[in-house]
Structures are given as structure tokens and as C-alpha cells.
């Protein structure tokens, strides 16, 4: 019996060692030893571990069998604990326990410490105003250059009756422009805005500051547009502009990137380029807007007489694909003063004086201008323009004063097809009847045909290849012989246009 008890005590000691090894981080090795020991022990198989010669009583055998059952139950419990602990990270320091002690609770690892985050910067009201200003204001730049070749090889390399592409067989900078635009936004509560267009290059002299209209052209020459805007909260909002703006008489405008062709039409060159004064735009409905101007004159920042010119017009949208503009302009373009040497009693500035013209011609100028744009398909657009210009030197006939009118009439047709986002083809056919030498200095009928191929290399970079033929019923155009004129001229032009900035659409 002593041997049996010693064997049982030894088993308990081994079990305690197993528990100690498990809690010291050797769970897997200990479990292997434990399972081996249990499998090897004769009691686990119901066999006697004592020598055969030692007799056992029934009472002692039952007692030993009960102890073995207890040990098997403890082993099963250990197996379950091992299985649970294998799924939980072990701690580096475990408390050893005895066979009779309960397992210590598993302490979870400390949470990972994250780096402290910097609090977001709070914008001050002044900073928000500055950022809002630059968000609503666009600063835009455009560069426009070309190379043109005139097959007449004209003396002086001059393309006659051209507004911008005036030079032949030369690399030319047409214009460089800077546009600063801060439009009003009535929906956001800002009813005021403004715009400034600065222009430099050879087109500036063509477009700005003709000494016949401007006594001080050098002051305003590089300012193509400069006006402020306010939206009066009446009806759908009445827009009022004050300052200098590019004329909307005629479909064509100043910026080459927004035109169908690179070269400009006769009508762009003949009709006013700009005005100085007040203009009002009042939308009556979504389809009709009325326009009214009061200005100093045509191509005049400073008035040359006391008469104020007016424009009455409308813009209609009979359908979503058609836009029709109609303008009637009433003016008086004859000056009532003349520039004289600075000895006159009417000084303007150092070196500039005027003398009154008596009597001053008071004949009126009437311009009827209409153009319609039809977006036939998303790729095809068609434009028609018609103009009639009549001017008299004197308002009423008087002895020795002729009031026979001079007039110019005609129009133009444009077609453009967008083959792909990069490629487009545009064409223009134009007719201008100059009866009274108002445009060309000669009574004649002028015609021209232009074909322009557009290739956009990238957003903001456009190449234009253009062929144009001008012709007349009178010898008009320069040739390679001095004082010898031709009835036609043909030019080929390559235009390069770059622009960048946040302003969308037409400038």
C-alpha cells in the first residue's frame, strides 16, 4: 500500500510541475509530457502497477480506481485550458500556481499609444475673406502669335484691309492679354463685380486709340476693357456696367481662341471696337433680355462732341439651340473741336489744346446689326450676320452743306464642324458693299472666303491653319509693284494661341 500511495503522490507531483511549466510559458511542451505520462501509466489502462506477487484487496483497488478517474478528469480539464490559451497571447510574466490553485486571469496587453494629433487650424474671418476673394476672382493670360504669307508678295509686306493679321512673311505677335475677372454672384449675396482686360501687341494699335477718335490715345491704349458691375435686385436682376467694354456690334470679338476663324472679318474691322459709358441688361424672361447703352461714341473713351450715343437691342432665345441678337445704334461721330498747338485758351494737359469747330457737323450715324447662332447638332454650328450702316455729315440740308448719306451694307455666314475634341473645321463667306468710302476709302464691293482648320494640342493650346482669299470689283490690294493694285489677294496663315487661367467659356 505504501508503494501505491507513493506512486499516486508522485503523479500528483508531476501534475503540479506540469501546471508550473505551463504558467511559465512552456504550455505546449508540458502538455506533451502530460499526455505521454497519462498514456504510459498502467492505471490509465486499468492495469496494476504493483508486482504480481503483491496481493491487492478489493477495497484498495476501488480506492485507487477512484483516484485514477480524478486524475483523468484533471487531465481533460488541462487539455481544455491549453486549447483556450493557445488562442490568447501569452504574458511575459505568469504567476506559478500549485495543483490545487485556480489559473490566474489573463491580463490583456496595454493599448498602443498613438501620436498626438495637431488640432486643425481655424481660419480667422479676415483669412476667409481673402480666400473667398481669390476663389471668386480669375486671373487669365493669353498669347496670340502667327505667321502669314501673302501670295501677292505686297510691297511693305502688308495684308490690306485686315484688322489683326496685318503683316506678311513675318513671325508676328498679334497680342498678349491679361484678364482679371471678378463677376457678381447674386445667388451668393454679392451683387457687385468688375473686370479688367490689359492688351499688348500689334492688335492694340489696330483696336485701340485711333487718333481720329481719341485725342489722348496713349492713356487708354493698353486698357481694352475696364468696367464695374452691379446687379439691381429688381425682377430677375438688372445688370448695370459702368466703364469701357468691347463692343457687341457684330458676332466677332477680340480673343482669337473664341472665334470660328483666325483672321477677322471686314465687319469686325469696320464696326466699333469699344465704347465708354453705361450699359444695362434687363432679363424679361428666360428667353428674352433687353439691352440699353448710353456711351460717349464709337471707339471713344473721351468724347469728341457733346452728343451721347445710344443702343437699343435685345437677345432672344426662341429655342434652346438658337440665340438671336438685334441691335440698333444711334450716334453722332463728328467732332466739335480740333487739336491745335498749345497756345489755345482751352488746355487739356501739357502739350494738348483744342479749338472749337464752328459750325460743327451734326449728322447722325445709324447702325442696324443682327446675328443669329444656331447649334444644329452638338458638333455643327451655323452663324448668320447682317449689317447696315448709314451716316450723314449734316442732320438737315442747308445751303452749301451736302447731307447725302454714305452707307455700308452686307453680312457674313459662318459654319463650323467639330470632328473630335481636338479637330474642327470652320468656314466664313462675307460680303461688304462700301458705298461712300467709309471703310476702304473706295466705293467698291468686297468679298472674302476663309477656311480654318483647328488642331488643339492640349487644353489651352490651339493651332490654326487658315487659307483666305479676298477679292473686289475694283483694283484694291497691294502687289509687288509700287502703285500697282490687284483685285484679289490670297494668304495662308498659321496661328498659335496659348491661354491659361480659371475663367471658363468665352473671354
Q: What are the salient characteristics of this protein?
A:
21 strands; elongated; 16-stranded antiparallel beta barrel; Porin; 18% helix; 39% strand; 507 residues; 3-stranded antiparallel β-sheet; alpha+beta
Termini Cα gap: 113 Å
Unreliable spans: 25-54, 90-102
Quantity of strands, as a count: 21
Helicity range: 10-25%
CATH level 4 superfamily of the largest domain: Porin
CATH fold node name of the largest domain: Porin
Please report the first level of CATH classification, the CATH class of the largest domain. Answer: Mainly Beta
Shape by Cα distribution: elongated
Helices, strands, pairings?
Layout: H1 2-23, H2 27-40, H3 58-86, H4 125-136, E1 138-150, E2 170-182, E3 192-200, H5 202-207, H6 217-220, E4 223-232, E5 238-246, H7 266-270, E6 274-283, E7 288-295, E8 309-319, E9 322-331, E10 337-340, E11 347-349, E12 352-356, E13 365-374, E14 380-391, E15 406-418, E16 423-435, E17 444-458, E18 461-472, E19 477-478, E20 485-486, E21 488-500
Antiparallel strand pairs: 1-2, 1-21, 2-3, 3-4, 4-5, 5-6, 6-7, 7-8, 8-9, 9-13, 10-12, 11-12, 13-14, 14-15, 15-16, 16-17, 17-18, 18-21, 19-20
Helix pairs in contact: 1-2, 2-3
Amino acid at each position: 500500500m505504501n508503494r501505491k500511495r507513493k506512486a499516486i503522490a508522485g503523479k500528483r507531483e508531476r501534475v503540479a510541475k506540469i501546471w508550473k511549466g505551463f504558467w511559465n510559458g512552456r504550455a505546449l511542451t508540458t502538455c506533451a509530457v502530460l499526455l505521454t505520462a497519462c498514456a504510459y501509466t498502467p492505471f490509465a489502462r486499468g492495469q496494476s502497477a504493483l508486482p504480481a506477487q503483491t496481493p491487492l484487496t478489493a477495497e484498495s483497488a476501488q480506492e485507487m480506481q477512484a483516484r485514477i478517474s480524478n486524475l483523468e478528469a484533471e487531465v481533460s480539464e488541462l487539455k481544455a485550458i491549453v486549447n483556450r490559451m493557445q488562442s490568447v497571447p501569452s504574458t511575459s510574466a505568469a504567476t506559478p500556481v500549485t495543483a490545487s490553485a485556480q489559473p490566474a486571469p489573463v491580463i490583456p496587453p496595454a493599448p498602443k499609444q498613438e501620436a498626438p494629433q495637431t488640432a486643425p487650424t481655424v481660419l480667422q474671418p479676415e483669412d476667409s475673406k481673402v480666400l473667398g476673394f481669390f476663389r471668386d476672382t480669375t486671373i487669365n493670360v493669353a498669347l496670340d502669335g502667327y505667321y502669314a504669307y501673302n501670295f501677292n508678295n505686297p510691297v511693305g509686306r502688308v495684308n490690306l484691309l485686315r484688322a489683326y493679321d496685318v503683316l506678311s512673311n513675318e513671325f508676328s505677335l498679334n497680342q498678349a492679354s491679361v484678364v482679371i475677372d471678378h463677376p457678381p454672384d447674386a445667388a451668393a449675396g454679392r451683387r457687385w463685380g468688375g473686370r479688367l482686360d490689359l492688351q499688348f501687341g500689334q492688335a492694340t494699335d489696330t483696336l485701340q486709340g485711333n487718333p481720329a477718335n481719341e485725342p489722348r490715345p496713349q492713356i487708354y491704349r493698353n486698357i481694352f476693357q475696364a468696367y464695374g458691375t452691379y446687379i439691381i435686385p429688381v425682377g430677375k436682376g438688372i445688370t448695370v456696367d459702368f466703364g469701357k467694354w468691347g463692343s457687341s456690334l457684330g458676332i466677332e470679338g477680340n480673343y482669337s481662341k473664341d472665334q470660328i476663324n483666325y483672321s477677322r472679318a471686314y465687319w469686325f474691322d469696320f464696326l466699333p471696337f469699344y465704347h465708354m459709358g453705361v450699359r444695362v441688361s434687363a432679363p424679361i424672361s428666360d428667353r428674352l433680355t433687353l439691352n440699353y447703352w448710353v456711351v460717349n461714341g464709337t471707339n471713344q473713351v473721351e468724347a469728341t462732341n457733346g452728343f451721347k450715343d445710344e443702343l437699343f437691342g435685345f437677345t432672344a432665345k426662341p429655342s434652346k439651340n438658337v440665340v438671336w441678337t438685334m441691335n440698333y445704334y444711334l450716334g453722332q461721330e463728328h467732332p466739335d473741336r480740333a487739336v491745335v498747338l498749345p497756345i489755345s485758351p482751352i488746355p487739356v494737359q501739357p502739350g494738348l489744346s483744342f479749338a472749337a469747330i464752328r459750325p460743327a457737323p451734326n449728322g447722325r450715324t445709324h447702325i442696324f446689326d443682327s446675328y443669329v447662332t444656331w447649334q444644329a447638332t452638338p458638333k455643327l454650328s451655323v452663324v448668320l450676320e447682317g449689317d447696315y450702316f448709314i451716316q450723314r455729315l449734316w442732320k438737315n440740308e442747308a445751303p452749301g452743306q451736302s447731307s447725302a448719306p454714305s452707307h455700308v451694307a452686307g453680312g457674313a455666314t459662318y459654319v463650323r464642324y467639330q470632328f473630335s475634341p481636338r479637330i474642327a473645321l470652320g468656314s466664313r463667306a462675307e460680303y461688304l458693299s462700301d458705298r461712300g468710302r467709309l471703310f476702304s476709302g473706295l466705293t467698291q464691293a468686297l468679298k472674302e472666303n476663309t477656311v480654318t482648320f483647328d488642331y488643339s494640342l492640349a487644353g489651352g493650346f490651339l493651332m490654326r491653319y487658315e487659307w483666305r482669299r479676298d477679292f473686289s470689283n475694283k483694283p484694291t490690294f497691294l502687289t509687288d509693284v509700287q502703285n500697282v493694285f490687284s483685285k484679289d489677294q490670297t494668304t495662308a496663315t498659321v496661328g498659335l494661341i496659348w491661354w491659361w487661367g480659371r475663367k471658363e467659356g468665352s473671354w
